[in-house]
Structure formats: C-alpha cells, structure tokens
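3.2 Worked example (two chains)
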Amino acid sequence: MIDLFRSYQPVFDFFLFSLGLAYSQQAALRAGVFSVATAGFSALGAYACAILVKTYGAPPFLAILIGALVGGAAGWILSAPLARLRGVYQAIATLAFGEVIISLALYAEPVTGGAVGINSIPKSISTWHLLIVIAAVMYVMHAIGRSGVGRSFDALRQDETVAACLGVSITRYHALAFVISGVIGGLFGAMQSLYAYNIEPGQFGFSLMVSVLTAIVLGGRSSLIGPVFGAAILTILPELARPLAEYRPLVNGVILIGVIVFLPQGVGDAMIAYFRRRRDAARRGVSVEKRSVVASA
C-alpha cells in the first residue's frame, strides 16, 4: 500500500495544488466576481517566495507567508479598478492582469530570471505540508460559507440589485472576495515554488487559467466539496486517458461541454442538491405517515 502511494505521490501532490488554486477561483466566483486572476496571484506568490528564499536566504515559512500577503495585496489593488466592471468585462480585465504579470516576469530578467525563470530553489514542501494547508483552507472556506460574509457572497452572486437593497455593500464584498482569492492563490503559488525546484513564466499562463476555471465548472462553485470533485476529475482524467493522449484536449472539451449541458451546477453541487431533495422527500413522507396515523386514531 505504501509503495502504491509512493508511486502515485506526485499525482496526489498535483491534485492538492490544483485543489488549492480551485478554492482561490471559487472565492471570487462565489461572490459573483467573474475573475480569472488566480494564475496571476499564484505567479506573484511564487516569484516573491522564490526570490526571498533564493536571493535573500529567508526562512521558507516566512517566504510563504509573504507570498500569500503579496497575492492578497494584489487582489485588493485589483479590486479598485474593477469595481465598475461586471461579467465578461471583469473576466477580460483579470485575464489582462495575468498576462501583465507574465510579461513582467519575462522582462524583469535581473530579478525573475526572464524566460528561464528561477532555478535550484531549495525544496521545503512535501505532501504533509500540502495536506495541512489544504485542511486549513477548507476550514476557512467552510467558516466563511456559514458566516454573514458567505451569505452576502451568495446574495451578490444570485442578484446584485436585491443584495444592495438588503444592505450588502457590493464594492466592499467584491474587494473582500478578491483579497481572499489573492491570498489563497499567492499561498499555493509560493508553496509550488518551494516544491518544484524551479519556476518560469510559462507555468502561470493561459493554460493554468483555463485549468483552474475548468475545475470549478466541473466541480461546482458554491459548495465546499465542488473543487474537490473538479480537481480530482482533472487529475485522474489524464491518467485514464493516456491511450488517447493525442486527443486529450478533445476529450477534456467533450467532458466539459457535457457537464455544462447536463450538470450546469457542477458535479459536486449537483450531488449535494440531489441528496438534499431525497432528504426532504423522506421527511415529507414521514410527516404524511404521522398525520395518517393520528387521523386514523
């Protein structure tokens, strides 16, 4: 069993990284912010952490913390100019943000290493570090979901006008969603830089944006379990579809279209909705049965 786990440990670690970035994406989408800036936040956290550790010899824990704070600060700054944008315009603006970060990483060669990136970064992150951080992030997301902040996010996602009439500050909660998304994205970007020995701009490009967004579309954007399903599908699918490696983008696209058409809520959210309907139906059945017994008595 241990040998089996060791043979698949890199795949499991990739799943944990994908899950962390999926929660960053979910934090924005849950508040109704159509942001694809997670890849940019991740790049900022990764480069900040790698430069601190490699150039200045900072302790890994401090460098990861600063990487997360850099991502959160970028989210807060980004929320100001995007406060007046909605929908596809927000998506385009955050897509441009990611491309600007990639361009800075390419052209600031004395600091970032340019196209080659930063190499020989001391590895300080292992699987159990990732598990602890994922557990902490899931707890925080669960706590947010059950708090007034989570209810405000849900209200904004469903109808901004109604939420504003109920006293929810659109600007404040959208900024908070950007900050949470930035902190989580920067956190996992920083951890990735201390896991993979090297980072380069291509890791944080358009393909990462699409992958993170796809994980949420597949899994669901409102439940805690949704990103788990999305990240698991995207991790396991390439392993199962190795014979179809040449057609892998086509297979991924067909599955994504199928989920959008038949399960628009995502696999995780759809499963939760199904079990809730069954529970409610069972309760109604018990209630009707009790009323029948009382009436017959």
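3.2.1 Second chain
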Amino acid sequence: MEVTFIDLLLDPSKLGPWFHQVMLSWGFSEGLANLVGDVLGVLVIVALVLTSAIFLIWLERKVAARFQDRLGPNRAGPYGLFQTFGDIVKLLTKEDVVPDGADRVSFNIAPALAVFQIFMVAAVLPLAPHVIGADLNIALLYIVAISGIAATGALMAGWSSNNKYALLGGFRVVAQLLSYEIPLILVMLAVVLFANTMGMNSLAEKQGELIFGFFPGWYIFVMPLAFVLFFVAALAEGERAPFDLLEAESELVAGYFVEYSGMKFAWFYLQFFVNSLLLSAIITTLFLGGWQGPFVDKAPVLGFFYFFAKTTIVLLSMIWVRATFPRLRIDQMMSFCWKVLVPMALVAVFLTAIVVKLPVERDIQVLILSGTNIIALLIGLGLVGRALRKQIDSHKSAVPVSR
C-alpha cells in the first residue's frame, strides 16, 4: 500500500519502513538498506541528545534563577539563549590539562564512558507509539546494566586524577550510586510484576488500559508509593540536590572531575544535564503513561507532544528540588537510603506481588494496590517525621541552657 505524506505526518513510525522501501527501489541490497537505516537512526539519537543539552543548560539556569528571585542568563541573545553557546566555545577552546601522576588511560577514558551511557539509554526510550531506537523486551534490565557504566566512569575519573578530592568523590560514587540503585531496581521490579513486561514501549502501551473504563491506568495512580520512591532515588542517581555529594563544592571542590578541563570537563557537564532528562523520560514511561494521551490512537504523532510535555514537567520538578533543598550530609544520605528507601521499596514489591495473585478482576486489583500503596506511603512519611522530631528534640536537650 502506498504511503502518503499525510500518513507519515500522522504516524512517524511509518517513516523507517517507507525509507527502507525507497532505498530498495534505488537498488540497495537488503543488508545495505538495513545498515544505512541503522546508521541514520544512531545519528538521529546522537543529534537529539547533543542538541537537547544546550537547551537543558539554559532551562535549568533560567528556572533555578526564578526560584531564587534572580534573573539568570539575560545578556547573550534574547532571554540569554546564546549564553550556552558562549560556554561551549569557552570549553572547547580551553587547554586540556592532565595532572602529574595521573593514570592517563583511565583519565582519558572516563569522560567517554559517562557520555556513552546516556546515548545507550536514550536508544530504548519510546518517544511516540513504535518510535524507538531499539524496542528491547528486556529494556529495563538493559537500562540498569548500562547505568553501571556511568558509575564506573566516575570512579575511574576520581581514582586516576591523583587528587585527594577527586578520590573522595570517587569513593562517594561507589557509596551513593550503588546504594540508591537498590531501591531504584526494587521499584522497577514492582512495576514489572504488575505490568508483566520489561519492554519500555510495552510499559507505555499497558498504561493505555482504562481503569473501570474511564480512569487513566497510569502507574502513578496505581502505585503512588513506587512513584515517590523512584523519583527520590532518581534524584540521587542523577547526582542532583539534595544528593549532590559527589561534587559538593564546599567539601570536595568539584569531586571526581575536579582535575578535568576543556572538552573532557564538557563531557561530564553534558552527561549531568542529559542524564536528568533521561531520568525524567524513564519516570514518564514507567509511571506517567509515556506517550499515552487523548487521540494518540488516531494521530500517533501526538505521542511526541504528550511524552515531551510529561518529561518536561518531571524535569521542572527536579530543578525545583535542586534550587530549593539544602544538601544532605553523607551520613544522612546513606541512612535515608538504607533505613527509609530500601525498606519502603521492599514493601512496594511485597504489596504488588500479593495483589497480582489475588483471584479478582484487574480493576479490583488496581483499586487494592492503589489503596495499599497510599496507606504504606502515609505510614512511611509518618514514621520518618516522627524520627526527625525525635532527633530535633534530642539535639535541643543536648544544648546547654545559657544563664
């Protein structure tokens, strides 16, 4: 059947098969057409990631400034839009310095590993119905495995720099990122148990099922406890405040990348901002229905709008947290992970495992799971608040009364 321009406009997923047929009509062999299609797909993902970083840096500066009653970038171009381009030129023209005694191989590979991870994760995110770089049926497992590469890169950067601040930053990478991956993975397990799939596109499709025929089946409504836990753990995985201890300026100067300059520093800078966008996109896919929205079945191109709108809302929430919350101490951060997030994530998995085995209809399962999640969340918040009040009272009683 002939594909028209309107068909391609309404359903971008037809663009790939259409272009494949065009290449075959030009006399390309099947293998060469597949190779060209794959290469073009990779280039599109790389271009999207690199260009998004420019906009993300400007957005974060501007929004954070507004939260803190400042103007933010406002000199270079309209609304300061060209400020990021000036920063890019500055970073690209700076001298590349390698400290004495550094392990040059690890020192040079570390920034590349950090950036490699974000390209690999971006490849499995569904931007619209069937518009995805690689629709893996084990995409969640793949994301968890690939995310470890970023931690490895940060650890290599800290160890190879021959700097005590960088080394401490590297130690914190191991402590923070690996610890917070546990509640993150447990929450993913709860989602997989309920959805019965690990594919990112399949997860978005599953959330298109309406509860009782009228209410959106997004997992933020079905598993609110899991959503809150994932969002908090994602802040730590993204090295964002109040969990930005890996690069705490007042303690470690800049942490594991204190010795980097020029282009290599720019790679870490890019990884930080794009990683926040990817984490927002993963949260959108897992809990906010991904590209799901009204009339997306009739015009799949609307999926782009829904996906980017939801992702932007999550990203703005992360910027809000970074701009307003103070940094935790390292002991407070680790206690919060092991004493609060991990037990509550286990509760989320336990509740999901029980509810999916109940011999009732799916809608009733959703109702029970949502109710038990809300109760568990309220109990958890109550216990945390009680512990904090006790801690404050003990500090007050320890302070000697002045005469």
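3.3 Remarks
The chain has a mean pLDDT of 87.
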